[in-house]
Amino acid sequence: MVVRLVGAVILLVAEAAQAFTVRDMRAQEVVLAGRPERIVSLVPSVTEDLFAVGGEDRLVGVTDFCDWPPAARDKPRVGGMVGPNLETIVALRPDLVIATDEGNSQSTFDQLARLGVPVYVVRARRLEQAIEVLDRMGELTGRTAAVAPLVERLRARVRRVVEAVRSHGRRRVLYVLWADPIIVPGRDGLVTELVTLAGGISVTAGASGAYPRLGLEAVVALNPDVIVLARHGGDQTPVLRATWERLAALPAIRAGRVHAVDGSILHRYGPRVVDGLEALARIIHPEARF
Amino acid sequence: MSAARLVRVLGVLTAGALAAAAVALFVGSAGLAPGRVVGVLLGQGSDAEALVILGLRLPRIGAALLAGGALAVAGAGFQALTRNPLADPSILGVSGGAALAVVLAQLLGFGSSLVAVLGVATFAFGGALGAALLVYAIAARDGQLPLQTLLLAGVIVGLFFSAAITVVISVVELDRLAGVIHWMLGNLTALSGDALGVFLLLLGAGVWLIVGRARQLNVLALGEEPALQLGVEAERVKRRVFVGASLLTALVVAFAGPIGFVGLIVPHAVRLVLGADNRLLLPASLVAGATFLLVADTIARNIIAPAEMPVGVITAVCGAPFFVYLLRSRA
Amino acid sequence: MEFAYPGVRGAGPLRFRLGALTFDIAAGEILGVVGPNSAGKTTLIRLLSKVVAPLRGEIRLRGQPLAGLSRAEVARDVAVVPQMTPDALPVTVAEAVLLGRYPHGSGRFFESPADRAVSREAMAATGVLDLASVPVARLSGGERQRVVLARALCQEPQLLVLDEPTTHLDFRHQGELVGLVRRLQRRAGLTALIVSHDLNLAAEVADRILLLNDGRIERLGPPDAVLEEATLSRVYGCPVVVDKHPASRRPAIHLVWPEAPDRGSRA
Questions:
Q1: Smallest CA–CA separation between B218 and chain C, in Å?
Q2: How many CB pairs under 8 A join B and C?
Q3: Structural domain that includes position C206
Q4: Measured between CB atoms, does C132 come within 8 Å of chain B?
Q5: Under CATH, which number does the domain A2-123 receive?
Q6: Which residues lie across from B207 on neighbouring strands?
Q7: Under DSSP, is residue C134 helix (H, G, I), strand (E, B) or coil?
Q8: ∠A188-A191-A257 over CA atoms, to 5°?
Q9: Given this chain, do its domains A2-123 and A167-284 carry the same CATH topology?
Q10: Does A181 sit behind a cis peptide bond, omega within 30 degrees of 0 on the bond before it?
């Protein structure tokens, strides 16, 4: 990461003389004429990152799902993540499109390549990668000076949480992303790592994949201490009754150890992911102070 | 039915298709004024505008015309082959095979070198042909192709692939799921020049296979025994038409996913107006199908702009009521 | 024209049971083929028109093996008028008849003016010319039969084969058909093979009768010689009476209906 920062600085210095060339997270070279001035983001997490680093004036297009921060909703829309409208994208005259191969479709990549629009691909399945994405957004928008303190603050908050929960033992946590079918974080899911950092053990950490679907019996057999239900559709919407009624067989539910959390901050890997970590920690270890 | 009539009818239909294409060129999410569009066509206009018109709209119009034509001829061919008015490219399980192949390819994910090299379209094509072979193998007996068995085999193979797709969907990773489902709704995209070239070539082959036997199909409509007695090599004709129709269906599913109703409705509509002579019906279906899908796709990409509706939704919305009307008017 | 089938007596699952058959038809003759059910009459038609191939042996038509001829070549020699027409076809009479020209130009996509001329003649000969633009679906059974006959005539065959031509026809139309076939025989020298289970039709129309029984030729000869009581009763396995048709003096075959009510007790 330090190496990358140094590399970015060298690039910045050499920029005046050459074209702007970067490597994305697929290790592919992305060649631009200069620092991107007109960016279209096809990933809500990336949109959040761009605003967080102060590069939003270079952002000219976002998806329908890019709803944070509120100012993002004023940016021009290009459609969904899977089938964005290419004409709309092209009409915005972007010099860079930022996308992910974990959510956008290959057909979109092919079309953009054919039309000569550069595409920068990001991926994040771990907290470290999420921070790397933030870093890279700083690099792309020339806001590396702003990124460094931001990243340091985020890391500090993570350290505080880890310290605070360390002495309180580990609780068995079931995180339910969706109730019907039951979708849980598996081995490769970011949420699994967050649960661990927050002082819990995700009971579904052994399941393969990022967000596998489990049967109700399997979930009951795992017998968690704490259940965290994800809320979808914004902070204040209550979790649907139907969601937790389905899991009524679990002792944790009967004992009332059920909590809700805002899904959008935990399922994206923008800067708010640390907010999500803190929310999880408060649920798992309410006695911890940070 | 004469060459002169065929030329006249095709001329009128082609004019219609060109008119639809012209209109489609002027409408789109980018909101370009007609003057700008004309500008691009004359070689002026900004890079972005040229990209939209020549890089997106024009290839997409081409894809819609080719796909619509292919589906309509395949449908008309299957209907003539099976002497069953409800036959449709999807009824013979061919699009199910393609869909399964694509879903599997999506599972492997791009980045997997096999998929990257071959491309999703090749997978789909292979899957479709595999399904056609399977149907043929099940139905063929002693070098003959009994039609009842063919239809049943097609339905069974189609059901099998549907079940397989359901299994795959239920285990696929969440972030890939949206992509898979999106593909399965059928979407026309702006194909590259190479892809359009391949599409056109294979379309030509498939159309030649089927239309080349149009007169024989007319005789075959009398029944297999009378056709044999009139000198038609029934088995050879059936095989050839089956191959042609399967090829065309595989082609469309490979490039655009499963799009329904075109192969069912267009031949019927054309038959209502122009009669049942396959020498007119098949070529006319080609052009009429192209126009129909182009109009449907133009609606699909503009009606809820900037979002896009899958074209299969529009064809279904048109198709179902039309079919009800057809059934009732015959009864 | 002679037909020779060395024959195979099938056993078990074989559907066709035809033994060795050799017979000939003179030009301009009408041969009636009769016999009980599953005597092999339909199989004969199918073999003649190359719809099925014999499992063993060989069929020769005018000395040439059928197997060596293409279907179109056979169709130029032999035209079959089937008994059932699919009635759902949305074609006009003219279009239906024109289909009969296929064997004479199977490589062409469109019919030629010569094809249309032959087709018009055939429609005229069978009396359906003024129905030319009428959809076949709207015709009566008798009219449809004549359309199918016209189509067969378009094939310009050496031999016309009629498969149970009067099955669905009422008296009047049966008579019309017989008249038509006879006119064609007289004026155009038509050679025909009529398969029928209606013995009286065969007796009336045929110059000679081929009586098939259990896959073999039972008798071949003029109606008077073949259609006689003892032979028929034996072959059909039920009592028949044969006398003379009051008008034409041809054999008239009557079945002796069983379980006749006792005349005396009806008073």
A1: 8
A2: 70
A3: 2-62+158-266
A4: no
A5: 3.40.50.1980
A6: none
A7: coil
A8: 130
A9: yes
A10: yes
Quote the pTM value. Answer: 0.86
Question: Cβ of A64 and B307 within 8 Å?
Answer: yes
pLDDT tens sequence across A241-284 = 666 677 777 777 777 788 888 888 888 899 999 999 999 999 99
Task: Name chain B contacts of A64, Cβ cutoff 8 Å.
Answer: 307
**Rounded to 5°, angle at Cα B167 from B165 and B169:** 70
Domain A167-284 in CATH 1.10.357.10? The answer is no
Identity (one letter) of the amino acid at C258?
P
CATH of B3-330, one of 2.40.30.10, 1.20.840.10, 1.10.3470.10, 1.10.1040.10: 1.10.3470.10
A82 to chain B: nearest residue by CA? B179
CA gap B184, A83 in Å, rounded: 13
CA–CA dist C108, C113 (Å, integer): 12
Does residue B48 belong to the interface with chain A, where contact is any CB pair within 8 Å?
A: yes
Instruction: Give how far B161 is from chain C: nearest CA, Å.
Output: 34
Torsion of CA C176, C180, C181, C183, to 10 degrees: 140
Please answer yes or no on whether B170 and A213 come within 8 Å at the CB atom. Answer: yes
Collapsing DSSP to helix, strand or coil, C3 comes out as strand
Exposure on the CB side of residue A230, measured as CA atoms within 13 A = 21
pLDDT class of C16 with cuts at 50, 70, 90: very low
ipTM beyond 0.85?
Answer: yes
- A26: closest chain B residue by CA: B111
Residues C165 and C104 in one domain: no
The CA-atom distances, in angstroms, between C195 and each of B11, B223, C1, C163, C205 are 49, 20, 17, 5, 11
Q: Is A232 on the interface with B (CB under 8 A)?
A: no
DSSP code of C217? E
- 8 A C-beta contact, residue B37 and residue B74: no
**Considering only residues 40 to 99 of chain A, which have any Cβ-Cβ distance to chain B shorter than 8 Å?**
64, 77-83, 85-88, 90-91, 93
Both tokens assigned to C265: 């007790």
pLDDT, tens only, C45-97: 888 888 887 777 677 777 778 888 899 999 998 999 988 666 668 889 999 99
* Spatial distance between the Cα atoms of A82 and A104, rounded to a whole number of angstroms: 5
